[in-house]
Design brief:
- With about 220 residues, the chain is an all-alpha fold.
- The chain has one domain.
- Helix content is about 70%, strand content about 0%.
- It is built from nine helices and no strands.
- α2 packs parallel to α4 and α4 crosses α8.
C-alpha cells in the first residue's frame, strides 16, 4: 500500500478514522449525517477521495458507497419526518439545531419549490442534514422525493469525489495556496458588502429627500367666491 497521505487542516482529523475503518467510515458518517446526526459526512467524503487520488483507496468504491449512504440516510430522515410528524421533529430537533423557526422557513421553501430544493439541499450546510426530515414533515410524495434526492446525491458525490481525487497527493499544496489567498478573498467580500450597504442607504436617503410630502403652502390664495 502507498505511504500515508498527509491531510491538511480540517481534513487531518479524519485520517485516523480512514486509516482504521476505511470505507466503513465513509458509509457510516455519511449515513448518519443525512438523517440529522451531527457528523462530518462531507469532510470524510473529500478526505476519502483525496486518499483515492493518492492510491490508498478506490475512487469508484468511495463514490458508490457515499451515494448509497447519502440516499439511505435521507430516506431514514424522510421516514422520521413522515411518520414521527412535526411534534417529534421539534422535540428532538433542538439537538441538531433544527428549531421551530428554521423548520417553518424550510417548510416554506419546500412548499414553494419542492423537488428543486431536494436536489440543491445536498450542497447547503444545515439543509443537507434536515432535507429528508423536512420532506417527510411536508408529506412530499416518497417517489418524487426519492428521485430528486438521488439526483442531488449523485451531483454532490460526483462533485466532491472528483475534486478530492484530482487533488490527490497535491492536496497540501492546494490547501496552502487556498489559505494564502483566503484573506484577500475575505477582504474583497467585506468591501463588496460595505459598498452594497452604502449604496442601499444612499438610495433610501435620495428617496426620502425627493418626496415633497403634502402641499402645505399657506400663501396660496383661496379660490374666488
Amino acid at each position: 500500500m502507498s505511504a500515508p497521505v498527509p491531510l491538511p487542516g480540517f481534513l487531518n482529523s479524519l485520517a485516523p478514522l480512514l486509516d482504521h475503518w476505511g470505507y466503513l467510515a465513509v458509509g457510516g458518517l455519511l449515513f448518519a449525517e443525512d438523517f440529522g446526526v451531527p457528523a462530518p459526512g462531507e469532510t470524510v467524503l473529500i478526505a476519502a477521495s483525496v486518499y483515492a487520488g493518492a492510491g490508498r483507496m478506490n475512487i469508484v468504491a468511495v463514490a458508490l458507497i457515499a451515494f448509497a449512504a447519502a440516499v439511505l440516510g435521507d430516506n431514514v430522515g424522510y421516514a422520521i419526518g413522515r411518520f414521527g410528524g412535526r411534534t417529534l421533529v421539534l422535540r428532538f430537533g433542538k439537538y441538531v439545531l433544527l428549531t421551530e423557526a428554521r423548520l417553518a422557513r424550510a417548510e416554506g421553501f419546500f412548499t414553494r419549490h419542492g423537488g428543486k430544493i431536494v436536489t440543491v439541499a445536498r450542497f447547503i450546510e444545515g439543509l443537507r442534514q434536515a432535507n429528508g426530515i423536512i420532506a417527510g414533515v411536508t408529506r412530499m410524495p416518497w417517489s418524487r422525493f426519492l428521485a430528486f434526492n438521488a439526483l442531488g446525491a449523485a451531483l454532490w458525490v460526483g462533485a466532491w469525489s472528483t475534486v478530492g481525487y484530482l487533488a490527490g497527493t497535491h492536496i497540501t499544496a492546494i490547501y496552502n495556496q487556498a489559505n494564502r489567498y483566503a484573506l484577500y478573498l475575505l477582504a474583497a467580500v467585506a468591501v463588496l458588502i460595505v459598498a452594497l450597504v452604502v449604496r442601499h442607504r444612499r438610495r433610501g436617503s435620495d428617496a426620502a429627500g425627493g418626496d415633497p410630502g403634502p402641499d402645505t403652502d399657506t400663501d396660496s390664495e383661496a379660490p374666488a367666491q
